[in-house]
UniProtKB/TrEMBL annotation, chain A:
Entry protein name: Translesion DNA synthesis-associated protein ImuA
UniProt cross-references to SUPFAM superfamilies, sorted A to Z: P-loop containing nucleoside triphosphate hydrolases
Superkingdom field: Bacteria
Listed InterPro entries: P-loop_NTPase (IPR027417)
Organism from which the protein derives: Pseudidiomarina gelatinasegens
TrEMBL record, chain B:
Domain of life, source organism: Bacteria
Annotated keywords: DNA damage
GO BP field: DNA repair
Protein name, UniProt field: DNA polymerase Y family protein
Database matches in CDD domains: PolY_like (cd03468)
Residue ranges constituting the UmuC domain according to the UniProt record: 24-153
Alphabetized InterPro entries for the sequence: DNA/RNA_pol_sf, SulA_CellDiv_inhibitor, UmuC
Length: 214, 472
């Protein structure tokens, strides 16, 4: 592709961001597979290491945990769950091959303290993933989490209700989850490309098989 | 070879009390008075007071006229002895044989340590380094016998040598008043012109015995080291429960931080001397009236170092409120355990990982409270609400597998539902259990979809239909 010489020079310096091209610094080992082929493709390879990702859910329990289960079921994953919407149930998690004694659950109604706990976990070398359920994260709080996650190369997920207004946040990835017959994920924001429309994600294969009513 | 060291702390109680306070407190003049038959005389004074002209032995009226801002407190001999014991605990980390000479001195036997610390000066450097952590004024002196070392130290003669001849000469120089003999004896010796210890030692001992009684011959034998009275060596206590008195009332936790630091330093030396670590501390703040404020601190991992103890305790205390000013602070070590590593796994790396997870949990629990940091575990009970119990966090072994699919979420409270809003997908699975205790259940569980196509775990019992969990 030919550009004028001035633009070429800028490209050489890496000052121009090109939406349609794969990024220059994209490396395989920067990504951790989400476990879902379609999602991996759209996110450039998986969850970016050292990132805070947002999952906007239409309603709780539509399948957001199923999206994260492949990651949580990795034997080396140690996760902190901050303010989960219900009690994480040991038999169900065990069935999904999540290692129970590597899950730490924090229930703290004070938002500030909950975020403090998340930050401590991101800074601890023993925790690799932090899950945060919150409705009220401010732009500053997200940026702070993102800074810590990036510095420590950890993964954090914020599960939140659908956000109406498109206010900018420092999330690396923003996904919107919707359910009709299947779970549909739309990418609202991603690191290396434009937003993408909704696509079906086969998360139901981890869940009890669906069939017609008895 | 001078095998004995004697440490004399002439201002022990005052120095110790000031050590528990922030350094700026020590800049102000402080002194302790001792009352004998309505006569109050100064017995201890800090550096600031001494510089302004206050002297030990002065009447309190004179001293406070000289330095109006001088703060005077009563000297308490018992308390001073207790502090000496606490100090012995600190020194016990370096010296095995300590004899307490309350209220202000301690004797150390160092012959057994010479090889460990490469000679006399090695031992000395070790002790001095340890005492440097405490802003205490002391005089340390060596001697060929316990009594010789004690007399030299008490007369502020800091003789640090391993040569017996030098020590003997120094002892001989001591005036008879500092011999430690009863006052009557001293008077009688002085009356016959024996003004120094040296002049007494030169006399034939048998003749001295005839003239001044047998006590003096025993004294001289002890001084020369020929007679070694049995020493009652210090043993560290099996429990740690120390309290310190604050110089002034304190109303907030941050102000208690300084005394707490010192106490935790003692906790560390206590744990170190036993090779223990601890999982629980009880910190109590004592008030003028009413019961003390208690703060129980649990650690998810065993700790023993002061820095760890302090940072975790600090997080705990930030959550606490003091309802009244504090006069005294105490710390008790609970559940000490021996420090050897409990390795159940073969690979050290796995354990190290678990340890640092425990560290994180300790930190979170310290700030948020124990009950807010939880884990979920499989239990041997088939009732769904007990099968995957949630509990305060603890590291446990993984239970064996279970091949039945269960939801990943369980509602803390079951929700009544309308059956017609749910589409049954799979079931029923009948769970009947708990007939042996007060909470028996008989339920038919189904996997069902709600109007939004979410997969729920619902059941039917004689009370109706309920939602119990979600699958994702």
């Amino acid at each position: 592709m030919g550009y004028p010489a001035q633009v070429e020079a800028l490209l050489q310096k890496g000052w121009v961001w090109q939406g349609q091209n794969a990024p220059l610094n994209k490396a395989e080992n920067q990504f951790i597979s989400t476990g879902w082929h379609d999602l991996d493709q759209r996110l450039g390879g998986g969850w970016l290491q050292g990132s805070v990702n947002e999952l906007q859910v239409q309603q709780p329990f539509i399948g957001e945990l199923a999206v994260l289960l492949p990651l949580l079921a990795q034997p080396e994953t140690t996760a902190l769950w901050v303010n989960p919407p219900a009690q994480p149930y040991a038999p169900g998690l065990h069935y999904q091959q999540v290692i129970l004694n590597q899950q730490v659950i924090v229930n703290e109604s004070n938002n500030k303290l909950a975020l403090w706990a998340a930050e401590q976990a991101l800074q601890s070398r023993s925790i690799s993933v932090v899950l945060i359920w919150s409705n009220t994260l401010s732009a500053i709080q997200v940026r702070r989490l993102q800074q810590v996650a990036e510095a420590e190369r950890k993964l954090a997920f914020v599960i939140t209700p659908q956000q109406r207004e498109e206010e900018a946040r420092a999330y690396v990835t923003r996904l919107q989850l919707q359910r009709t017959d299947n779970l549909y994920i739309s990418v609202l924001k991603r690191r290396f490309g434009w937003p993408l429309p909704a696509f079906p994600c086969a998360v139901d294969k981890h869940l009890p098989r669906r069939r017609r009513a008895l | 070879m001078n095998a004995w060291l004697y440490l004399h702390f002439p201002h022990l109680l005052l120095d110790y009390q000031l050590a528990l306070q922030p350094p700026e407190a020590a800049v102000k003049p402080h002194a302790l008075v001792h009352t004998v038959a309505a006569r109050r005389t100064l017995v201890q004074a800090n550096q600031a007071a001494l510089q302004q002209g206050v002297e030990v032995g002065m009447a309190d009226v004179l001293a406070s006229t000289l330095v109006p801002e001088l703060s005077l407190n009563e000297h308490d001999r018992l308390r001073e002895s207790a502090m000496l014991t606490q100090l012995a605990q600190v020194l016990y980390q370096d010296i095995a044989h300590i004899v307490l000479h309350p209220p202000q001195g301690m004797l150390c036997e160092i012959r057994s340590l010479l090889r460990l610390h490469q000679g006399f000066h090695g031992v000395l450097a070790r002790i001095q380094a340890r005492l440097e952590q405490w802003p205490l004024r002391y005089c340390i002196s060596s001697g060929y016998s316990p009594l010789a070392a004690k007399l030299l130290a008490q007369s502020q003669y800091a003789l640090l040598t391993s040569e017996v001849g030098v020590a003997k000469a120094a002892v001989a120089q001591l005036p008879i008043e500092q011999s430690g003999l009863p006052g009557q004896q001293i008077a009688r010796l002085r009356d016959v012109g024996l003004l120094t210890l040296g002049s007494v030692m030169q006399r034939p001992r048998a003749e001295l015995g005839v003239r001044f009684g047998r006590a003096i011959t025993l004294y001289l034998a002890e001084l020369a080291g020929e007679l070694a009275p049995p020493q009652d060596f210090y043993h560290p206590p099996a429990r740690f429960d120390e309290r310190v008195e604050l110089a002034a009332e304190v109303a907030t936790w941050p102000q208690l931080l300084f005394p707490l630091k010192r106490l935790l330093q003692q906790v560390e030396s206590f744990l170190q001397s036993h090779q223990w670590s601890t999982r629980a501390l009880l910190i109590r703040a004592h008030h003028r009236h009413g019961p003390p404020t208690q703060v129980a601190i649990q650690f998810a991992h065993a700790v023993w170092q002061q820095a760890d103890l302090l940072s975790l305790s600090q997080l705990h205390l930030e959550r606490q409120q003091l309802h009244a000013p504090v006069l005294e602070l105490s710390v008790r070590v609970q559940r000490p355990e021996s420090r050897q590593a409990k390795r159940s796994q073969m690979f050290a790396e796995v354990n190290e990982h678990a340890d640092s997870l425990n560290e994180l949990v300790s930190r979170l629990q310290a700030r948020l409270g124990e009950s807010k940091v939880q884990s979920t575990q499989l239990q041997d009970d088939w009732r769904p609400e007990r099968h995957g119990a949630i509990q305060a966090w603890q590291q446990t072994e993984v239970a064996n597998a279970n091949a039945v699919q269960r939801p990943c979420w369980l509602l803390p409270q079951v929700e009544p539902i309308h059956r017609h809003q749910w589409q049954l997908q799979w079931g029923p699975e009948r769970i009947v259990s708990g007939w042996w205790d007060a909470a028996p259940i008989q339920r038919d569980y189904y996997v069902a979809l709600d109007a939004q196509q979410r997969q729920g775990w619902i059941y039917h019992s004689d009370k109706g239909w309920f939602l119990h969990g979600w699958f994702s």
